[in-house]
Amino acid sequence: MQIFKHILFFILALLVCEGIAAGASAWSFLESSLASFEQIKNLSDQRARDTIGAISKSSEGKLSKDRLEDLNFAFTRLVKVTSGDKEGFIISEISMTDDSGVVLASSNEDYVSESRTKRKPEPKFLSTNYTAAHHLRKWQIGTPILLGEKNTFQNDKLMQIVSPYFPEISEPSVLLSMAVYHPEKLERVASLHMKYERGNFAHFVKIQTELFWWTLQNNAIIALICALILGFSHLLIKSVRTSFTQDGKYIADPSAPPLWEKVDFAQTEGPIRWRENVSSTPSYPSQNPAPISQSHVPAVSATSTAQAVNREKAEIIDAIYLG
User: Fold this and answer.
1) What are the phi and psi torsion angles at 92 (to 5°)?
2) What is the dihedral of CA 39, 43, 48, 49, to 10 degrees?
3) N or C: which end of the chain has fewer CB within 10 A?
4) Residue 319 has pLDDT above 50, yes or no
């Protein structure tokens, strides 16, 4: 029964320790993932602000009809270069429009396939997200806006599980706008719109998942060690409690012997199990007994003789017990 209790206590201690380890690993994974996600998002937005600021500055002197082709080439080149970015900062589209929604220059060839005089206003650039750039001052950069283009991740089960905790992963497309002013006059002549994606979130989730499994494995090993320590401590405490009474007296139970046995040889003639069999212990005669004459031995009583024999047997028993 005692063995069953010890095994049950160890199993319960193991379950509790492993549960704590799994919970701590999951919480650490969630906190580190949220912090890393915010860092990636902020770095991508800061990089986008620097890029659109440089484009706006370089575009101020190229708004004439004969130089708009240079802007189309520059925008297309920039989109192509960022498509292979290792950090996942990808610019998908750059467009410059006037207040009426007519595209002046763009990396999308569908908007600039016709000549400027034949182009019509694009309804997309007349929406609220794009017309907000009409109210920006010079060198003022707009706020990044999520365009609401959902990504379902149909072929990636891991992303489907993680996406509820990071809602913005499902909306990778972000719009950033800036006003373009005349190089000499303080008047706005066009609006610049850049559409980009914030980092390679699929790679980010993969790295964070690998880190989670590594942390969980280490915490599980530590939890197992803690459970073993608790189980051994429980066994040790139960053994001590069953070996002594509340007054500190030793209890010898033959049916359930303790892990150790404490005996005070200064007050007893040997361990209890040896002393109970003193009467049955054979006596060993001396190897070279010297003849003693009856005339030289004083008379002793029977009681004194018996005590001497018992002391001799106790010394022999102590020597055998102690090795």
Assistant:
1) -95, -25
2) 100
3) C
4) no
Cα-based angle 207, 213, 217 (whole degrees, multiple of 5): 145
Q: With contact defined as beta carbons under 8 Å apart, do 179 and 63 qualify?
A: no
CB 134 within 8 A of CB 179: yes
CA distance 241 to 221: 31
The DSSP call for residue 113 is S
What burial letters (b/e) apply to 99-112, b meaning 16+ CB within 10 Å? eebbbbbbbbeebb
> Which residue in this structure is represented by tokens 């509340």?
246
Token duo for residue 11? 């199993």
Both tokens of residue 263? 């005996």
Question: Tell me: the pLDDT tens digits for 218-273?
Answer: 888 998 999 888 888 877 777 665 555 555 555 555 555 555 555 555 565 554 54
What's the distance, Cα to Cα, between the start and end of the chain in Å? 34
Q: How far is CA 271 from CA 71, 152, 153, 250, in A?
A: 103, 79, 77, 12
Whole-number pLDDT of residue 176: 92
| Residue of 258, 260, 231 whose CA lies nearest to 242 | 258
Q: What is the pLDDT of residues 108-165, one digit of tens each?
A: 888 888 888 888 888 888 888 888 888 888 888 888 888 877 766 666 677 777 777 7
- 244-249 long-range contacts (CB < 8 A, ≥24 apart) are none
d(CA 207, CA 201): 10
What is the rounded CA–CA span in Å between residue 66 and residue 320?
115
Residue 76 neighbours by CB under 8 Å, 6+ apart? 107, 109
Q: Phi-psi region for residue 260, left (φ > 0), alpha (ψ -120 to 50) or beta?
A: beta
- The C-alpha atoms of residue 312 and residue 307 are separated, in whole angstroms, by 9
Q: Are 57 and 74 in contact (CB under 8 A)?
A: no
